[in-house]
Design brief:
Layout (H helix, E strand, L loop, with lengths): L4 H9 L4 E6 L4 E4 L1 H7 L21 H8 L3 E7 L2 E11 L5 E10 L1 H30 L10 E8 L7 E8 L2 E9 L3 H22 L4 H15 L7 E9 L4 E7 L6 E3 L5 E3 L18 E5 L5 E5 L1 H5 L9 H11 L5 H11 L7 E8 L1
Antiparallel strand pairs: 1-2, 1-5, 3-4, 4-5, 6-15, 7-8, 8-9, 9-10, 10-13, 11-12, 11-14, 14-15
């Protein structure tokens, strides 16, 4: 079946893109309707005249398309518009390229949208970087406490994390905790700021009452803030009495159990019931446990990212491996624990917070 020239022209004229056909000498031999509407009829003119030039462009894609027998693309600017231009070879009856067909697509609005997105992303990047610095600035500077060594390590899996920890010295007591906000990123990191401020306030208010009163105060603060219902926090909190070494612990839905490693290498884990800090008071209360730190004892609080990190085979780091490493690594500290996790897993995909108190 053969088709006439007018048949092909009708197809090109029906296109929404701008189309022109250029012969091997660079002369425009055809413009479709959309091309004429945009630029006027260019038929009989040199292809480069459209862009107010007196010779072919150095990177003329029409010439390259004919010479290399393939399609080429470039961006062209005309007045205040940007076009994406595709030049493809046109073949004669002998199979040789006799010219090119060029398709112009107006991408001006697309470029404007891309530029707006680029600017917005840059603003977001700066905001995230600021939020990261802000969150890091809120991490504790460990107070020097005679008779105790406190270390911690905090590793967010993204720029910003949902885990957090703090150490607060109040008179003859030390309040310390590890918290885990559901999720990662900006929202979770902003909630950690709430956690810090709420615990500081309630710890100072109820330090001489009980750990339960502190946690209840944090829960009420959270409810008053009216956070989205999908946001919740788990916390494991301890109060250390410096003189006696007594530690009172309490959990708000925190799934990881504090680990006590005695000087004689015996290990005890503390399981505590308690509701998470959420938008509804489930009236489940918060269970407390107590222990006494003696010389060379270590008490470790941590988030679930530490034990739930997986290797390439899908095996979790786990509590057993954690305890084994605590017992086997000489002069263990939180940084050495994190390093061991990194050596085990293929990629850490959750935030990790670890806090250790050792009586020396």
């Amino acid at each position: 079946m053969e088709f006439s020239k007018s048949f092909y022209e009708s197809i090109l004229n029906g296109m929404l893109d701008l189309v022109r056909v250029i012969d091997i000498d660079g002369v425009v031999v055809f413009c479709n309707t959309k091309m004429k509407e945009e630029f006027g009829d260019q038929t009989g003119k040199k292809c480069y005249e459209l862009f107010c030039k007196d010779s072919r462009c150095e990177d003329c894609i029409a010439t390259r398309s004919v010479r290399e027998n393939t399609r080429f693309m470039k961006y062209a600017h005309y007045k205040d518009k940007i076009y994406y231009v595709i030049s493809s070879p046109v073949y004669g009856q002998n199979g040789k390229a006799v010219g090119t067909v060029e398709v112009f697509r107006d991408i001006t609005e697309q470029r404007k949208i891309e530029e707006r997105l680029r600017r917005q992303n840059e603003i977001l990047r700066r905001d995230l970087e600021f939020a990261k610095r802000l969150q890091q600035s809120l991490l504790p500077v460990i107070p020097r406490i005679e008779g105790y060594r406190i270390t911690y390590t905090y590793k967010p899996c993204e720029r910003l994390g949902g885990d957090f920890l703090d150490v607060i010295s109040i008179d003859d007591k030390i309040v310390f905790y590890v918290a885990d906000v559901a999720g990662h990123g900006l929202l979770a990191s902003m909630v950690t700021i709430f956690v810090k401020q709420s615990i500081i306030k309630n710890a100072h208010t109820y330090i001489n009452s009980s750990a339960q009163e502190i946690m209840k105060g944090v829960l009420l603060d959270f409810i008053e803030m009216n956070f989205p219902s999908e946001i919740y926090i788990t916390i494991v909190l301890g109060i250390l009495e410096k003189q006696s070494g007594k530690v009172t612990m309490i959990s708000a839905g925190h799934v990881t159990e504090p680990i006590l490693v005695k000087a004689n290498k015996k290990v005890k884990m503390f399981s505590m019931r308690g509701q998470p800090i959420a938008s509804i008071d489930l009236e489940q209360g918060f269970e407390m446990k107590e222990t006494i730190l003696e010389k060379n004892d270590k008490l470790i609080f941590y988030s679930d990212g530490l034990i739930e990190s997986k290797n390439k085979q899908g095996e979790m780091y786990g509590k057993k491996r954690l305890i084994k490493r605590i017992l086997s690594i000489k002069n263990i500290n939180t940084e050495l624990l994190i390093r061991d996790v990194r050596n085990f897993v293929s990629d850490i995909d959750d935030d990790i917070a670890v806090l250790m108190i050792e009586k020396i």
